[in-house]
Design goal:
- The longest helix has 18 residues.
- Strand 17 and strand 18 form a beta hairpin.
- The protein contains nine helices and 20 strands.
- It has two domains: 225 residues, P-loop containing nucleotide triphosphate hydrolases (Rossmann fold), CATH 3.40.50.300; 110 residues, no CATH class.
- It is of the alpha+beta class.
- Strands 6-7-8-3-9-10 form a six-stranded mixed beta sheet, sandwiched between helices. A five-stranded antiparallel beta sheet has the order 13-12-11-14-20. Strands 15-19-16-17-18 form a five-stranded antiparallel beta sheet, with no helix packed on it.
- 32% of the residues are buried.
Length: 346
């Protein structure tokens, strides 16, 4: 098991990682999810031993490995740019790390063939890697990481350079490979679709801190803050002011405070105060068109076709979906399932 305890790191005199702690269990895949520049890759490099933390501890099976050099940690790394050797064929690329371990010829051959079989590249042994597609090169990189039988796999945005269709295909393949191999993994990405497809647990990294962790379903269903909800594309994050009678004033009209807030005073914070600000999450699937007599109204700013539906964006950014389009510039009434509104932390 990998355990990180209170990892700190600065960059150009500014905090980059602020006390990161996490665990990766046996056979578990976790995804570090967050925007670019948030410290995800730096954290991965600290785990790999390519960078040193300024404070904190990295341990494997309860032994501190903070001072152990990268080649002795037996962690496999897979990068976006593949990092293959262009002058070597597929077999020799996969065998490279095994030769560095000074394994016997038969053992190397056996492991290379098994690794290529795992990534569905048997028969590619003599091909030059420069003649392969991007997806095939990434699978060679994965085979090379699997061949030494690593304790842990580390992925740094490995599919970022691939087109959408190929990325979706390789995500499914990677999920299957990780499940079958049983090797624990940490996968770094800014793409929630990748994280939700692969992860047993998702850890959201923002401003150098893990702001939420849980299964993909838990994180999506119950975002802790407005930032998390917006980053995940969970729905409309709406600012409002609390009025009398448990009502919240927003830019498009007045809605009711979520039921759990009215029933359990101070669920997320101090008791509710009139005129206090509040952050709400209104999911687009809980919004329908009403008539113009509705107290909730907006003006259509844009209509975006999305395969089997239309995304309707109102002035102010509020959005929802319809099966049939409306007209840009049209004023419409809204019907919202009040019981589905969620209150978020500020």
């Amino acid at each position: 098991m990998l355990i990180l305890s209170n990892i700190h790191k600065t960059y150009e005199g500014k905090p980059l990682l602020k006390g990161i702690s996490l665990e990766v269990g046996e056979g578990e895949t976790i995804c570090l999810l967050g925007p670019s520049g948030g410290g995800k890759t730096t954290l991965l490099r600290i785990i790999a031993g390519l960078e040193n933390a300024e404070d904190g501890e990295v341990s494997w099976n309860r032994k501190d490995i903070s001072s152990v050099p990268p080649h002795k940690r037996n962690f496999g790394l897979i990068f976006q740019d593949y990092a293959l050797f262009p002058h070597l064929n597929v077999f020799d690329n996969v065998a490279f790390g095994l030769k560095m371990q000074k394994l016997g010829r038969d053992e190397i051959h056996q492991r290379v063939i098994k690794s290529l079989q795992q990534v569905d590249l048997l028969g590619f042994e003599t091909r030059r890697v420069t003649d392969l597609s991007g997806g095939e090169q990434q699978r060679v990189a994965l085979a090379r990481a699997l061949a030494p039988r690593p304790h842990l796999l580390l992925f740094d945005e490995p599919l970022g350079a691939l087109d959408r269709k190929l990325r979706e295909y390789l995500l499914a393949e990677l999920r299957s490979i990780l499940q079958e191999s049983g090797v624990p993994a940490i996968y770094v990405t800014h793409d929630q679709e990748e994280a939700f497809t692969l992860a047993d647990r998702v850890l959201l990294l923002h401003n150098g801190e893990i702001v939420q962790r849980g299964t993909p379903a838990e994180v999506y269903a119950h975002p802790h803050s407005g930032w998390v909800a917006e980053f995940l594309g969970a729905g409309n994050v709406v600012q409002g002011k609390i009025l009398m009678d448990d009502l919240v004033e927003t830019f498009f009209g007045t809605v009711k405070m979520p039921v759990e807030e009215r029933q359990a005073e101070g669920t997320l914070s101090a008791p509710l105060r009139v005129q206090a600000s509040v952050t709400l999450l209104i999911r687009p699937q809980d919004v329908r068109i009403g008539d113009l007599s509705s107290p909730l109204r907006g003006t259509v700013k844009d209509i975006i076709f999305q395969q089997d539906r239309y995304k309707v964006v109102l002035k102010g950014g509020f959005y929802f979906y319809l099966s049939d389009p409306v007209n840009v510039g049209e004023e419409i009434g809204l019907k919202i399932k009040m019981g589905k509104i969620q209150r978020l932390a500020e």
